[in-house]
Input
Amino acid sequence: MRMKNIVSILVCLFFVIVSNAARVDTIVVYSNAMHKNIKVAVVVPDHAAKQTGVKFPVVYLLHGYSGNYGSWLKDAPQLQSRADQYQVMLVCPDGGYGSWYYDSPINDSIKYETFITKELIPYIDSNFPTSANKDHRAITGLSMGGHGGLFLGIRHSDLFGNAGSVCGGVDIRPFPNSWDIKKSLGTIIEQPQNWTDYSVVTIAKNLKPGQLHIIFDCGVSDFFIDVNRSLHQVLLTNKIDHDYTERPGGHNKAYWSNSIDYQLQFFAKSFMAAIK
Output
């Protein structure tokens, strides 16, 4: 009888935990810029179901090359509990396999900068309980998505008050034949200015102190470590406040699943400071 009581208690606790978990919605957002539907995973904190009128900060999470809208939740399954812990919404858009999250200057079918900044954000703010201002909005990602997080954050600091990157390709120029980049920018020999204009390390020189809260990191065994160190030096030279960390690790889900916990803590602290 005692064992049955223990089992009953454990079952009850299981259902309490499950019922209190943040929910994951998979939605489809139509892009007028690219004339297609794009899938997006949205993690909504449990608190949203308990109390009306609550508005949540939003963190946009961008996947890496060859990933999709579900990659972050697969590689970092703790994200649902983190959404509850920090009371933030997480938005994970599909990035078209290898878009690098910019508007291609040579291919009109690749307009992910427009999609995220002009189509996705308004859709999320209109259909979910968000705190719809830059001080409560962040963007980050891994690898290709790390480039996208800082690229879009810097270029659209009117929309994002916070931006980050996890082992991001923050300078694409050393990799002229990798990850389909030349399909959307042209070859580095024929279109060298495109490769300069679309690299985070280059546009970061336009940042002004206090314009954006920035966090990025990279594993010391990652093939992107040198470009991340270069970006760190650019920001130091220009006196741009930022959090930069190097840790043991390579370019893999073990690294970015660990890293995202630190970045969410960073963003949550920024969101809280904006309330005061």
Summary: The chain has eleven helices and eight strands.
